[in-house]
Prior knowledge:
Elements lengths: L8 H6 L16 H30 L4 E16 L5 E11 L7 H7 L7 E8 L11 E4 L9 E8 L5 E10 L6 E3 L1 H7 L3 E2 L1 H14 L10 E3 L2 H6 L5 E3 L3 H5 L3 E2 L4 E8 L8 E11 L1 H11 L2 H35 L1 H21 L17 H28 L1
Antiparallel strand pairs: 1-2, 1-13, 2-5, 3-4, 3-6, 6-12, 7-8, 7-11, 9-10
Helix pairs in contact: 2-8, 9-10
Amino acid sequence: MSFSNTNGPKACRKRKASGATLEEDLKVPESQEFQELLTFERQLDRLCGRKRSELANITREPPQKLKKTLRVFLTSTVETESDNAISWALRVDGKLMDDASMSRYEANRLKRKFSTYLQKIYVEFDTQDSKSQWSPAEWQRTQSTVECDGFDISRSGVPEKDHVQAKVLLFLDYSPPQFKLAKHLAETIGLYQATKQQVYVALWQYIREKSLQNKTNSEWIECDPYLKRIFGGENRVKLSDLATKVNPLLFPPKPLELSYRINLDPQVPMQKDTYEVEVEIDDPNKTHANSALSTHTMEKEVKELDDRISGLIKEVDDVRSKRDFMLLFSRDPEEFIHWWLASYARDNKEASSAAGRLSEEQRSAQYYNSSSVQEAVYRYYAELMSARRRELESKEQAG
């Protein structure tokens, strides 16, 4: 009986794990499914790589704001209590209006709680009567703020009039912060409310268009009549001082003022007033792209699954090696053991003599007269001389 080299004992004990690939001649019920899974995984990796490249291109684009309409609702309820006293409640809430061209998925991604659009809300009531008990209400964003869908303001007492006039001030939350520009600055650069960066860019563009930068010393800006109004009549200003001089001309934006009449007669139906406010929000596609690229949880899970698959493949290869070993041994135990021992003896002999053994070519004197050997000798002595020279130079510098 004879054994082939591929299925012999030497092949059995030298086979290594092949990563995440099963050998084609391994016949198990799940092998075909596994090969199909590997093919699908390669296709999925290519798709994920392409999408990841597209997301990276989106994140490299300058950030853009989307202008949307925020619809604000003001409603009130009134209840009668004992001794002519009443209790009433004012609710302020709102929602972002959906565009007709938007899909349901895109609309859901834009949904946010009403308080996320506000930095502060202040509600005051008609206090012409000195005996009025309707104190104002205020909410302001803090680091520990819990977002909500609306604000409820409740009051109770004996009314002096049949109605209460409420004034709601909404301070929008701009990110990055926006400012109202002073009159002369706004008229010059054509912006009335903007971020600091937008103001600086617009002012620099105005200076460039009017060629107001000093040609001899570019550090100075020569003021025309419009810039003189902005900078208090100065004839010229330093370029590095522009931000310092512009900042005092930027003021907090005015709040949105909403008026609402609360009827204190319980018999009157509830009144609902609606206002529409333009707000700026971040592009959800860019936000989603940033979060997708910065999330490492999925990558960690994929790596863990890859490690598990590699471990299982190694176990399968080990089991197959044992199976081949036992199968060959069962066919002819005597001949297999002789081959096994001879193979080990041959390997041990090769390993022990490989270090000090010379080839037949190296045993000949002619080998050492060849040009390659001469060049090796020259290189060896050149390296020794270079090392000695460096040693002497270092001693000379130290002395």
